[in-house]
Amino acid sequence: MKLSDLKKFKNHEIITCLTAYDASFADLFDQCGIDVILVGDSLGNVIKGEENTLGVTIDDMCYHTQAVANKIQNSLLIADMPYQTYSNPNDAIKNANLLLKAGAQVIKIEGGEECEAVFKSFQDEQIPVCGHLGLQPQSIQELGGYKVQGREEASAQKILKDAKLLEELGVEVMVLECIPTKLGKEISESISIPTIGIGAGNNCDGQVLVSYDMLDINLGRKPKFVKNFMTGNSSIEEAVKLFISEVKSRKFPSADYSYE
Ligand code: KIV
């Protein structure tokens, strides 16, 4: 899928997204009809077995992006830029180009206003970008843990302001992680680019989950927003198809998998 096709989903069809890190899962998800495949830096947790995403390198990301790109035929491929690979515009451009060369169609970075110079440089270089606001796992040390963001008025206003700024800075699509349903709705209605939620309620323009989480392959932490789609299914294919149908019909995420 082309990025221009994905942008047409807004207000028409809900976007489905799962993470993948290798060719076999990418092929299966692609064949099942997933709209977007994200090579997430969550590979630090689920592939490398680390506590957080901070140890993921650009080489890790390029290796896994290339593996996924080898088998994608229909889905759009977004790849994460890992921790400290976009601390300044020069590094950001250099590392983004490595991911694009590995097969990513869009790169994703975490952050708002504090990354303005980097977003501007991507815009100048015409590098397609996905934003990531709300809970930003690469800032886990500053945040003091995996906590819901935007519950207080000031923090909600900052996330909303950042979302509008990112749209102005040419960001094409935006992940919203771990925020109250009301804020996910307000942001999605305030900007013209698609939002893809993870723990951000069912009013976002799309939904993403870490594939291992929704397949109930779990090494530890299980956030409230994770639904086990293997329940009642006997194959990964069935679980992915159920995820697609529940997201497209807005059945998932229900209040049980969302935050107030
Ligand atoms: O790294 C990742 O898998 C992500 C998703 C949680 C959105 O960024």
Sum this structure up briefly.
With 260 residues, the chain is an alpha/beta fold. Helices cover 39% and strands 14% of the residues.
Structure explained in plain terms:
The protein has 260 residues and is α/β, with parallel strands linked by helices. The protein has helices at residues 3-7, 23-32, 43-46, 58-69, 89-102, 116-125, 140-143, 153-168, 181-190, 211-214, 236-248; strands spanning 15-19, 36-39, 76-80, 106-108, 129-134, 173-177, 195-198, 206-209. Helix 8 (153-168) packs parallel to helix 9 (181-190). The model has no long low-confidence stretch (mean pLDDT 97). The structure holds 3-methyl-2-oxobutanoic acid (KIV). 3-methyl-2-oxobutanoic acid (KIV) binds at residues 19, 38, 40-42, 80, 175, 177, 198, 208, 210.
Topology (SSEs and partners):
Layout: H1 3-7, E1 15-19, H2 23-32, E2 36-39, H3 43-46, H4 58-69, E3 76-80, H5 89-102, E4 106-108, H6 116-125, E5 129-134, H7 140-143, H8 153-168, E6 173-177, H9 181-190, E7 195-198, E8 206-209, H10 211-214, H11 236-248
Parallel strand pairs: 1-2, 1-8, 2-3, 3-4, 4-5, 5-6, 6-7, 7-8
Helix pairs in contact: 2-4, 4-5, 5-6, 8-9
Q: Key features?
A:
about 260 residues; 8-stranded parallel barrel; 8 strands; about 15% strand
Strand content: 5-15%
> Which strand order do you get reading across the main beta sheet?
1-2-3-4-5-6-7-8
Number of strands: 8
Radius of gyration: 17 Å
CA-CA gap between termini: 34 Å
Give the distinct bound molecules.
3-methyl-2-oxobutanoic acid
Low-confidence stretches: none
Count of runs of 4 or more consecutive helical residues? 11
* Largest beta-sheet details: 8 strands, parallel, barrel
Shape: globular
| Class based on secondary structure composition and strand pairing | alpha/beta
Q: Quick check: average pLDDT? A: 97
Instruction: Give the % helix.
Output: 25-40%
Q: Spell the H/E element sequence.
A: HEHEHHEHEHEHHEHEEHH
